[in-house]
Design brief:
Length: 173
């Protein structure tokens, strides 16, 4: 049977049947045009899938019994020359990686050292500036001798401000 006939038999669309085959990795026969051809066993598998989906099972959780499994055996190769070549290349890459890491760490240390030296120089400049300002402040706040004081330098007694009565403020007496 082709995909359309199986879809009508199950009551689903053709794209649904194709999606089930692809997502569940079912081994289905194909014709010379690449279309699926389903045998009775294949239709039975798809009916199992349809029943499980109707019972509320998610597509990724569907379990198909009797599915054809792919089998294959990988022939072991004893090619020690290529294995040794790969190991030598890995050692070379690892040594270059370690050298690069050392270079980066050295660069960062030198950069941090220069930043620290710049900050130390800045701290020294700031300390000198603070000392200069403290000297100026001490000189400016030093008391003046009373015999040299001019009238402007002497402090005048402040006149006592009288508080006005609220009635005076309102009526201007």
């Amino acid at each position: 049977m082709n995909t359309g006939a199986v879809a009508k038999l199950l009551g689903v669309s053709q794209s649904t049947v194709q999606r089930w085959v692809k997502q569940l990795q079912l081994e289905m026969e194909r014709n010379e045009l690449g279309h699926y051809t389903f045998s009775k066993e294949d239709i039975h598998l798809l009916k199992q899938v349809h029943e499980q989906l109707n019972n509320g099972v998610l597509l990724q959780d569907v379990h198909v019994e009797g599915r054809k499994k792919r089998t294959g055996i990988a022939a072991p190769q004893n090619d020690t020359a290529s294995f040794n070549k790969i190991l030598a290349r890995m050692d070379d890459i690892e040594s270059r990686l370690n050298a690069k890491a050392d270079d980066v760490a050295s660069y960062q240390l030198l950069h941090h050292r220069s930043e620290i030296e710049e900050l130390q120089a800045e701290v020294l400049r700031l300390n000198e500036r603070i000392q200069q300002l403290e000297k100026k402040h001490a000189h400016a706040t030093a008391p003046l001798p009373s015999d040299n004081l001019l009238i402007f330098d002497q402090e005048k007694p402040r006149k006592r401000v009288r508080k006005k009565n609220i009635l005076t403020m309102l009526f201007g007496f």
